[in-house]
Structure formats: structure tokens, C-alpha cells
Specification:
single chain, mainly beta, 7-stranded antiparallel sheet, 7 strands
């Protein structure tokens, strides 16, 4: 998992970390390879519209929070696809800065 492992470790230590996510699922918000800085976040602070690093089916995704309830978050990409609901505790970090490409 390379970048994800490094990001998870840094976030667990309470540190911010800059990554370059690959892929087009967040196109229009985060472009392929665009640097983004993630920071630790308390699960209860996450809101709809946030982009989060979330544990998903044995891996991690950098995705958009589409809806938020007291206990769960609906995550999906920026192109209209919905992945599904996760418990708030699955969130390990939130995008705190988008860097220019």
C-alpha cells in the first residue's frame, strides 16, 4: 500500500502528511497526482462535503463525504458514484490543503 501505509502511520502519530493520490475518481476536486495534505480529524467533526481518507473493505480510499449522520458517513467519488455507508470511526484523516499541480 506504499503511500497509504506512510499516511496512516503519520496520521496515527497526529501529524499531517502530504500525498499524491492517483486515479480519476475525484476529478474536478482533486486531479490525478495532485498533492494534498491530510490531517488527523476527530470522527465527530467530519461533515458532508469533506474529503477524507477512510478505511474501506481492507484498504483505504480518499473520497468525498456525501451525507453524514450521527454515527455514519456516506462516501463516494466526485463523479456521482456512491460507495456506501461507513462508521465514523473508519475515517483516519481529512484533506486540509489542496496544493497546485
Amino acid at each position: 500500500m506504499g503511500w497509504a501505509t506512510d499516511a496512516l502511520r503519520a496520521l496515527a502519530r497526529g501529524e499531517q502528511v502530504t500525498i499524491r493520490p492517483r486515479g480519476g475518481s475525484m476529478r474536478g476536486r482533486i486531479e490525478d497526482g495532485q498533492p494534498v495534505t491530510l490531517g488527523p480529524v476527530a470522527a465527530e467533526e467530519v461533515a458532508a462535503g469533506d474529503v477524507v481518507l477512510v478505511r474501506w473493505k481492507g484498504g483505504v480510499l480518499l473520497h468525498l463525504v456525501k451525507e453524514a449522520t450521527r454515527e455514519r458517513l456516506l462516501i463516494g467519488n466526485n463523479l456521482g458514484r456512491v460507495n456506501g455507508w461507513v462508521k465514523r470511526e473508519a475515517v483516519v484523516g481529512r484533506v486540509v490543503r489542496l496544493h497546485p499541480r
